[in-house]
Structure formats: structure tokens, C-alpha cells
Design goal:
Blueprint: E1 3-9, E2 23-27, E3 44-50, E4 60-61, H1 80-98, E5 103-109, E6 118-123, E7 134-135, E8 138-143
Parallel strand pairs: 4-7, 6-8
Antiparallel strand pairs: 1-3, 1-5, 2-3, 5-8
């Protein structure tokens, strides 16, 4: 697998100060721009890596799934680090939104063309930390109600 997760925000905060063992924020510059970053709406763009360096060890729903948020299911075993990393990312997204900033997020499978990305409006007031996951080849315009 090779997922790439990017966020953009109007916050000038250095998100790399929030780096941990499970979540790693890397500022996107012209030199390291990913192929779908032009889909992001806001000026400060960040690549979001997980403990593997890529974005694979977050919770993702793959194309072909019913795209609905939900907690872990018994029939689909998820590693605790994936759950914890996704919760940690959620907390950063929630923090930015609660601080009055705008945020969007793109979850791209490595060879998906940007034109194939579907955009959804997602309210973190309606999606709990434990239910949050990214949807493969989707852009989330995040908000708080």
C-alpha cells in the first residue's frame, strides 16, 4: 500500500512541532509537492506521514467500500498504532478548526490521478475521534458546525 495524506490550512502554525512517533507533519514546498496538492484550497500545505514514513498506517477506507465513518469492527482487525495515529491526527485537525482556522485534507492512493478525487464536506462535530478515518481518493473540506 502507499497512501498519501495532505492537509492545508490557513493557520501559520508550524505543525512539525506536533510530530510524534505516530504522526509526522512535513511542510510542502515547491520542491516536494505531491501530485494532488493543487486540489488543496488553503495556503499552508502539509504532507502527513505515519510511523512508516508514508501515510499508510492511518485508518483508510478503500475504493469499493461504503464510505461511512465508523469505529473499528471485529471482522476487520486494525492495529492499535493505526487507531492511535488516526486519533492523533483527528486531534490536530479538531484543534485547528476549534481555533478558528480552515482545514482541508486529501487522501490519495499513490497512482490516482487528481481528477479522480471526490470532494466531501465533513463536520468533525458529527464524526467522533474514534470513528474518524480517511476515504481513499477523497478530499475532505473539514468544518465544525
Amino acid at each position: 500500500m502507499c497512501y498519501r495524506v495532505y492537509i492545508s490550512t490557513d493557520s501559520d502554525e508550524d505543525l512539525s512541532k506536533r510530530n510524534s512517533e505516530l504522526v509526522h507533519f512535513e511542510k510542502v514546498t515547491d520542491a516536494n509537492t505531491g501530485s494532488c496538492t493543487y486540489l488543496l484550497d488553503l495556503p499552508n500545505k502539509w504532507y502527513v506521514g505515519s510511523k512508516t514514513g508514508c501515510s499508510c498506517t492511518f485508518r483508510h477506507l478503500a475504493v469499493g467500500s461504503d464510505f461511512e465513518f465508523g469505529g473499528p469492527e471485529d471482522w476487520c482487525e486494525e492495529e492499535q498504532d493505526n487507531l492511535d495515529a488516526t486519533k492523533e491526527l483527528y486531534r490536530t485537525l479538531d484543534y485547528l478548526l476549534s481555533s478558528g482556522h480552515k482545514v482541508d485534507l486529501v487522501d490519495q492512493w499513490y497512482d490516482t490521478k487528481p481528477e479522480a478525487i471526490t470532494t466531501l464536506d465533513v463536520s468533525l462535530d458529527k464524526v467522533s475521534e474514534s470513528d474518524f478515518m480517511m476515504f481513499e481518493n477523497h478530499k475532505f473540506r473539514l468544518k465544525k458546525d
